[in-house]
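Continuing the batch. This is chain 6 of the set; chains 1 through 5 are on the previous pages. Same settings as before, nothing changed between runs. Recording input and output for traceability.
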Amino acid sequence: MGHSKNPPPYWDRTSDDTGRQIRDDVRDSAVRIWKSLHRQVERITGESDEAGQLLENAVRVVSIYLDKKQAPPQDASGLLTVAVKRLAYRTARKLKRVEAVGGSTELEDLLSTSDWTEQVDRRIFLQELMSNVRPRTRGILRLRMEGFEWEEIARMLRTDAATLRIAFWRDVRKTHLQLLSRPNIREEEE
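Output for chain 6:
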């Protein structure tokens, strides 16, 4: 596995393989964060050959998602990063390069980075997220960060784990989109 310092340029497309138009804001975000995502894919999978295809798939999915939600143009960097990381971990599992550890590290993986400034930015963003989600979601997030499994939290709250997980991620995604649409959220500099 060779680490590439300068990734190949990202091939920006205006439409996907089916001819569906890709949103300009999603395309712009993809171009802006390409170098960072390329490094992350290489770190997760052990190679960077798949990075372009993974980002292309993520761009398509995020564009469809935002269109379906009729969301106004926005910085889609956060959504793209999460989508690419999920695809990269899925690819790594297929290649048997990642051992599934169970769910208690999902948030830690989402926040992990090798660059300390990025780490600080993510911690600040997590604090901002925590202060803007509903109180119930905030409590669940704290329990997840302490290592509790979904089933344990569901028992504490006397509900079903799947229902709890769906409501939690829905609130987190909604708040995440609201935070990203704020003008004072710093854009990635890559």
